[in-house]
Structure formats: C-alpha cells, structure tokens
Amino acid sequence: MADAQLAAAESGIPLPGTEKVLSRETRNGATLGVTALLLWLFGSLLMGSALVLTFLWAAIDGRGPARWLAWYALVSTCLGLGGLLGATVAKAMSDLEALKDTYLTSLGTHQIRANRAGCDRGEEDEAVPQ
Are 33 and 94 within 8 A, CB to CB? Predict the structure, then answer.
C-alpha cells in the first residue's frame, strides 16, 4: 500500500481518500528520514555483531591481539551513531518545516482577518504588508 501511495504521489495522482498530492519537499523529507533510519539499523546490526565478536574473542584462552576487531568495533559504532544523529536531524528538520508551514498559514489567516476588519470599518490597513 505504501508503494502504491508513493507511486501515486510521484506521478501526481491524488492520494486515495483525499484530493491532495504529496509535495516534493514532503517526499524528500520522507526519503531523508527513511535513509537515516536504514543507516541507523545497519549500524545497530554492525554494533551488535561487534559486541558478539568481542565476547567470543574474550572467551578464548590464550587469545592474541585483535586489531581487526578494534577497527570493526570503531567503524560500526561510528556508523550507528551517525545513523542515530542523521535520524534525529531529519526528524528535527521535518518538525521545523511543519512549524514553518503552520506559522505561515496562521500568518496568512491573520493578514486576511486584519484586512477584512479594516475593510469593515472603512479603513485601509497599511501596517500589514502584502
């Protein structure tokens, strides 16, 4: 169903049950969020496997140095934290975009009401920029 909605949005066909088409910004934001989530999931799998390998290495008697394991743990931790940070930034950007849209919508409504109030009194409101 999600694939059908995405294909409909990309082709400009209205979503089922609504007369709205997803905007390009909404699609880009969703793509960024999904990419960050997948990166975080991949990093989490790498970090989990690094822990398991570290535990196995520690359980072996007479173990030698394992520089490859240290590098693997470092890379997986960096990827996992990078994905987490990316998901957080994507969510924050999405929330800020929604807040901006809400503010601009309310500002437009306020300007319309102010203009109507000025017209009702027979005055022109020059303080409200058009």
Answer: yes
Is residue 88 within 8 Å of 55, Cβ to Cβ? no
pTM (predicted TM-score) = 0.50
Please tell me the chain's helix, strand, coil percentages from 3-state DSSP, rounded to the nearest 5.
75, 0, 25
Distance CA 98, CA 104 (A): 10
Other Cβ atoms less than 10 A from the Cβ of 55: the count is 9
Contacts of 72 (CB under 8 A, 6+ apart): 46, 50, 53
Contacts of residue 15, Cβ cutoff 8 Å, sequence gap at least 6: 5, 8, 9, 21, 22
Cβ burial, residue 117 (10 Å; 0-12/13-18/19+) = exposed
pLDDT digits (tens, 9 = 90+) for 31-64: 777 777 787 788 788 889 999 999 999 898 888 8
How is residue 31 written in tokens?
């793509």
Distance (Å, rounded) from C-alpha 129 to C-alpha 92? 30
